[in-house]
Design a protein that fits this description.
Radius of gyration: 29 Å
CATH topology of the largest domain: Beta-Lactamase
Helix content: 25-40%
Strand content: 15-25%
Strand order of the largest sheet: 3-4-5-1-2-10
Structural class: alpha+beta
CATH class of the largest domain: Alpha Beta
Largest sheet: 6 strands, antiparallel
Distance between the termini: 62 Å
CATH superfamily of the largest domain: GAF domain
CATH architecture of the largest domain: 2-Layer Sandwich
């Protein structure tokens, strides 16, 4: 306990082995084993009752003795899933099977019909709507709103939110479809601590996550000696007590979420909330997965189109700028003609060129003393010719005028002639005071229950407004690509620049 107390409750939560949590939710049956054969090495403790089998131990039996399955029915690729509808009859109706092959074994999860499935939905028109990707930035949020409406119609949940993960791992609700009687979360951000790293890692392994009833009592697993169940890819896996408290604090009794991957990265989440317990069949959840996959494809297509347009614009801007650079070097143009091109290339507020002849200033820049200090710091940095930071004062340890130099993109041109110093380009962006609306105070620690040492998630989701300074839009991968292309295209290594 001493070490955990020193690290803080959030650090303890990050170490929680959710994939080894042990029990499962009581809305289905779990059977599992090793890849070597189909012997059942672990099973939910109530599996015999669920399947109306004669009294006796489930462990040690072979899968084919219990249900009409063999290992050949399982997907061959680790992480892949196979749905078999109506596989086995039980006292609660015909049960669907979800088969999954893990890295070391297999999982067979059996679920009864959804007790809360809404009337049959015509999903195809919704899918066609999702395939109509936004063509312009102005259509971006409307597309997310259409996604929230489509999932709400399909699931019958009272609230559906499209939740975007930001670069700093905070989250933001960008679209919401909800009943009029529920509080709204559209717009405010949610702190990164609301979704731990280990939870986000598990999101990447599973296409969705259903929690039908936060008050349901988990069912333990019976496990053969030596078996070590990995439930990372299990739909039925029990829920972290911390997350259950979090949902209760939001007055949510049931939740359902679907992940949206773009370029292999967890980019968005569709989160569904209900004030009463709600259990949906795998068939309905599969329909929602089709919707979210169509949405992800549309988003990917839009982002790829936007990236191509920007790259094309960068190519044009670079060609023009290189021509101006050569004209200035050869005396056909004054240095002042470079200003607009230099600043526009990186949406910078100021730029400085430093060489053995002095400094050339463009746009809004710091004082000569501050620029010299920044240049001295940059010379001391080893490694790549291109350096970028969106927190210049913190990175350099310097006291700077953030209205003129909150972040820097630096290009270092190494001279190939003995005795000639390097030449450095600096592009600066000024700070942007930013007002952020949070769903609750992000700086308020969750804390732990003094009696149990169990982490208590935050209780308040009331609007909390924060104004931050000293930050700017970070340099992205295309900014860095453009800086390296400038080095190549202008002949900075071997032309008039050296």
């Amino acid at each position: 306990m001493t070490d955990e107390t020193k690290e803080g409750p959030l650090s303890t939560c990050e170490r929680e082995r959710l994939e080894r949590i042990g029990p499962i939710q009581p809305c289905g049956v779990l059977l599992g084993g090793d890849l070597s054969d189909d012997q059942i090495c672990f099973a939910s403790a109530d599996a015999v009752a669920w399947l109306s089998l004669s009294e006796g131990q489930m462990l040690g039996r072979y899968l084919g003795e219990v249900v009409a399955l063999t290992l050949a029915d399982f997907p061959s690729a680790p992480g892949s899933r196979q749905l078999i509808a109506g596989l086995v009859e039980s006292p609660r109706g015909w049960m669907d099977a979800v088969l999954c092959r893990t890295a070391t074994g297999w999982l067979a999860e059996l679920e009864p019909p959804g007790t809360d499935d809404p009337p049959t939905q015509v999903v195809n028109p919704l899918l066609r709507e999702m395939f109509q990707a936004p063509a312009a930035e102005s259509e971006w949020f409307g597309y997310a709103a259409a996604m929230a409406d489509a999932v709400r119609r399909t699931t019958g949940y009272e609230r559906v939110m499209v939740y975007r993960f930001l670069p700093d791992t905070c989250g933001e609700v960008i679209a919401e479809s909800t009943a009029d009687t529920l509080p709204r979360y559209l717009g405010p951000r949610f702190p990164a601590a609301d979704s731990t790293c280990i939870a986000r890692d598990l999101y990447r392994q599973n296409s969705h996550r259903q929690i039908p009833d936060i008050q349901a009592v988990p069912v333990p697993l019976d496990i053969l000696p030596g078996a070590n169940p990995d439930l990372g890819r299990s739909d039925l896996r029990a829920v972290s007590p911390v997350h259950l408290r979090y949902l209760a604090n939001m007055r949510v009794a049931a939740s359902l979420s679907f992940l949206i991957l773009v370029g292999g990265n967890l980019w968005r989440l569709v989160a569904c909330h209900h004030r009463r317990p709600r259990f949906l069949s795998m068939t309905v959840r599969e329909q929602c997965m089709e919707l979210t996959q169509a949405y992800a494809l549309g988003i990917s297509a839009f982002l790829a189109h936007q990236r191509l347009r920007r790259i094309s614009g960068l190519n044009t801007s670079l060609e023009t700028l290189v021509e101006f650079i050569l004209d200035v070097e050869e005396g056909r143009q004054s240095a002042a003609t470079l200003e607009r091109g230099l600043l526009d290339l990186f949406q910078a507020s100021g730029a400085v060129l430093v060489d053995d002849r002095g400094m050339a200033y463009f746009g809004q820049v710091s004082t000569p003393g501050e620029v010299r200090a920044i240049d001295h710091w940059r010379i001391g940095q080893s490694g790549d010719e291109v350096l970028a930071t969106d927190r210049l004062a913190t990175a350099s340890g310097l006291t700077l005028d953030l209205e003129r130099a909150a972040e820097v993109l630096a290009v270092r041109v190494r001279s190939r002639r003995a005795g000639r110093p390097d030449r450095r380009f600096y592009w600066f962006r000024s700070e942007q005071a930013r007002t952020v609306r949070w769903a609750g105070d992000p700086n308020k620690d969750a804390g732990a229950d003094p009696a149990t040492a169990v982490l208590n998630p935050r209780r308040s989701f009331d609007l909390w407004v924060e104004t931050t300074c000293g930050l700017c839009a970070p340099w992205d991968d295309l900014d860095l690509m453009a800086a390296r292309l400038l080095l190549q295209r202008s002949g900075l290594r071997a032309g008039p620049w050296v």
